[in-house]
């Protein structure tokens, strides 16, 4: 199995190194292509207005002066591994949770999504803590998931969003399949003055969990379980199509 | 009705002016908050690492040195309209289609999504052409949709993704409710040399439609119909949860 | 005379329009190439790591997604005026003074410097006020300077740095040739907290005048005179070379 | 002696590590504050529109998401070394020459300039090669210069611009005090097409030496000598002031 690894915390992030080290144990080959600096919050943004530069580090990791999506977009073309396309994309280990609505903004999840046309379903991995300690726990869990991945049957273009509690491995209580919860709207933007007295607006953090009931990713992690949420790329709201059609009939 | 208008083509884009002009006819108030320059491909990216600057133009439009999502995030807080929160967010009119997988990368759709907690379902509007001519057609269609929007019943956090053929209004054949089609993987990145002889990688365009069957957004637009696709923010792949759970049982 | 006009406040700045309008009266042709947004403080920075985009506005002005130096670098090649190279570069009218040490950081002065290989000595024009009112005063003064410029004899690669008091034209007391004064080190950087509690450092304003004696640019402007300072591109400190050589003898 | 070290090639550049290692031998303390990525060509640009982030690496080096000038501006305030202001700023070792007109655009020289108010004259060091090999040569030379610096008498606000041939130390022929030569205008910008067929303009390299006579920095380096050019911050063209005043008399 050939694995492409990326993240959104940047090429020097400890979570990336931990992931590469764990997946390198079993894989036929790994190739790491990551942003040259922290690009948290980048979502699926693509860089179209300039060409990108690839820099090969001594570690063998490649950094790109672009977004997580850029990195995987270039990496799945096999540009950096002798024209060999990866079988699988794994993104992470993010320093912080990607739960509920976070998924919309997350560069970690976006990097995984960009691997949706590979042979195996891509995986995004996040460690749920503001000050993450146990990257090794998340690394070991994703290593095990990957080792079994050939036998997983899912619809094409499904992404696995994995969130791991920041605990020693032996304290992890198991793995739960979850749906996304969702968050309250976050704190309002903060007005700040620059040193020359002009008003600026700083976007504040995300909100707390608004829907963290049993079955959600929030709940699983809070209970000490690893959360695995299958995500579909297709956002069509099928069940809402009929009422919309009725409404539109009046307009046609 | 108080409407917040944004886009991803930037504050000087003709599609934005056309949209503001059309919606200004009926609304109690409109407020335009858009990026200071073209941010196509920005997806849902949020700017967290710096505060943002708002600039009020003579036109009354406000530009932000950030992403489409930033603009709507600030705008829905009512920062720029005497602390009044909008009832509705409308984003566009994008110069170019947002069909199928485009939705993942689109700043236009992302701006609309960021209005998901407003009272009325947000709308993203795109004009389907590489060299768009008929912004007035799209503007009139969205004006009519908005005028009826109070009577639409949809699930919370649904977004309407509207794509309009680039035709005179009288040649539009009607409005179809659609699902997202999807695109082939795009052209591979292009290797270019900079003037100093170093290799760079330029991400190429999106692919052609891979799934453009009847019922898709691609098909509707190609046939001369306006496409309206209801999008859900929640990407949980509910129908895939069971098989995933079975697979995980072995691991637990 | 063919004149290339640029600035660092960006293509939509009122000072740029005032300058173009004034110089357009007498010149054989003008060509305006300016940054797409405010690039104050850009100094002579050049963009080498990506190609630049030129956008032709309805006004005939061209904007570049780069620095002031980029704009003039492209403009003096004649790229945007049918391959005709300009005889002269004029940069401004900057909204704010460029006095003393400001010259090091100024994008306005840098844009002028980039025209140093044209036939006539480039001119940088700034209006000295935090809330500039009288762009027309500065515009008229630079128009007159330019109309006489053919008869000025200066060393090659000399730049004229012009600072105009923000007064009605009839209250301007005359024009003085000046040397650069210099400023005290500015206020120290300001520590701010971002909304997530992390420390950030915001560079504060420039310092007050430390050397504003008669003969300096600071003094002239304060007294109601236009200041014209000839700048040389060559920063070699000729008079300091001998003592340096003596010191180095011990090391050789 | 407390030394602040910076560069424009970024915090991971080998020239920075070589410089820090050499100067760390003799100094009472060193503090390294450098851009988080390559900022070649940044000149004296200052970041005013956003606050800056400082990141402390395991090596003890601090990176800033800004320009070389930003780094030194923050560093000379003593922010990163227990409020202790440095006695001296040394910038480099740049991977590539900074000769003649390069000085205008160089971030390496700009970083040194920003230390002009420290007790000792700042030093910019560059290794003259497209593929630099002998950082240790340049590091040793700057170490020796710094060790004698207390005895150097120069005018306030003088910067030493040091260029070192890319040779083993034993093949360096000595040190010459030089003036700046200058370069021909560089190659014209290169027109390129992006993958979507739009024209873009890529700024090409700097020109060859136009003035490389004996006495210039170009000449010294070509002959195998280290070049040390004293630079003055004050660009006032004193000898040109009289003829300018005569010319202006007609206008007054």
Automatic annotation (TrEMBL), chains A, B, C, D:
Record's keyword annotation contains Hydrolase: yes
Domain of life per record: Bacteria
Enzyme Commission number: 3.1.3.5
Pfam families associated with the record: SurE
Cofactor binding annotation: Binds 1 divalent metal cation per subunit.
Cofactor: a divalent metal cation
Catalyses which reaction(s): a ribonucleoside 5'-phosphate + H2O = a ribonucleoside + phosphate
Top-tier EC class: hydrolase
Sequence positions that bind a divalent metal cation: 8-9, 40, 94
Keywords on record: Cytoplasm, Hydrolase, Metal-binding, Nucleotide-binding
Keyword Transferase (UniProt): no
Positions of the Survival protein SurE-like phosphatase/nucleotidase domain: 3-184
Residues in coiled coil: none
InterPro entries, sorted: SurE, SurE-like_Pase/nucleotidase, SurE-like_sf
Subcellular location: Cytoplasm
Protein family membership: Belongs to the SurE nucleotidase family.
PANTHER family membership: 5'-NUCLEOTIDASE SURE, 5'_3'-NUCLEOTIDASE SURE
Functional summary from the UniProt entry: Nucleotidase that shows phosphatase activity on nucleoside 5'-monophosphates.
The protein, known as: 5'-nucleotidase SurE
Gene transcribed to yield this protein: surE
